[in-house]
Write a structure and sequence with these properties.
The protein is an alpha+beta fold and 280 residues long. Helices cover 49% and strands 15% of the residues.
């Protein structure tokens, strides 16, 4: 680590990330120097002696720079696994310490804080049990009253608190209508009877189809249809009209009831105590 610290500026935190970044920087500089070296020696065939000597001097300087960078990169690459191992070991130590602290906090919470919470639970659960007992008594009385009213109907049956307060209303079936552009096909009724031919009566009727609207906001045209009219083929040409149509249908949905309070179970707060609800 003493050697590696000399490869970085003072006070630089030496981590696997900084080492990787330095290796990448060195490799990038090596590539740039090699390109520079090729440029220096590219014109050697047409150089005079003085130019040749200068080119070789420049090339030697570049080669030395490449050697230093390669040595730097190689040393960092060799040290990288050791640094990574040290970081992983440090991370494990930190994780283990954090887990020990969590375990100690959980131990204290279960020993001390939980005892206070359970005592509070016992107080509030007892109050809840009193309320459920009163509601249960009301439920029993309502059932008895309605049973008597069936044999002596002097008043309307009494709705229980579940029906009044603990059930959402039904959603009625219905539909939503609006005026839209529609294609209307009008079909003629049956012909009039003659002395020779009697027709089964059919009233004139129409078929309404909501028009599709194009990107321009206009109704997209639809073709005419061929209609077999008592042996004759009639061409029914639709007309575009504003009509009220159903745009949404809602089905019936019964209201939702909450779970009955008779299903509530309130166990004791501490071992050996009686159940808070149901009372036994």
């Amino acid at each position: 680590m003493n050697m590696i610290s000399k490869l970085f500026a003072p006070k630089t935190a030496i981590t696997s990330a900084t080492i990787r970044a330095e290796i990448e920087r060195a490799e990038s500089e090596i590539a740039a120097h090699r390109a520079q070296l090729e440029g220096v020696l590219a014109g050697i065939a047409v150089m005079n002696d003085s130019q040749h000597a200068q080119a070789e001097a420049d090339a030697a300087t570049i080669k030395r720079a490449i050697m230093r960078l390669e040595a730097r990169a190689n040393h960092l690459t060799a040290e990288l696994p050791t640094v990574i191992a040290a970081e992983e070991a440090a991370a494990k130590v930190a994780a283990d310490d954090a887990l020990r602290q969590r375990a100690e906090a959980a131990r204290k919470a279960n020993t001390k804080e939980a005892a206070k919470l359970l005592a509070d639970y016992a107080v509030h659960a007892a109050r809840v049990a009193e309320l459920i007992a009163k509601l249960e008594a009301l439920d029993i009385e309502t059932t008895a009253v309605n049973a008597t009213l069936r044999s002596n109907p002097v008043a309307e049956a009494v709705a229980g608190y579940d029906a009044i307060h603990r059930r959402s209303p039904d959603r009625a079936a219905g539909e939503r209508r609006a005026v839209r552009k529609c294609w209307v096909y009008r079909y003629p009724g049956s012909p009039r009877d003659t002395d020779k031919v009697k027709f089964q009566y059919e009233a004139p009727h129409e078929v309404v189809r909501q028009a599709d609207i194009g990107p321009d906001g206009e109704a997209i045209p639809v073709p005419a249809v061929q209609h077999d009219y008592y042996g004759r083929v009639l061409t029914i040409i639709p007309t575009l009209e504003d009509r009220e149509v159903v745009i949404e249908r809602v089905s019936f949905r019964p209201g939702q009831s909450e779970a009955p309070l008779s299903s509530v179970r309130l166990p004791p707060a501490f071992s050996g105590e009686d159940h808070i609800w149901p009372r036994g």
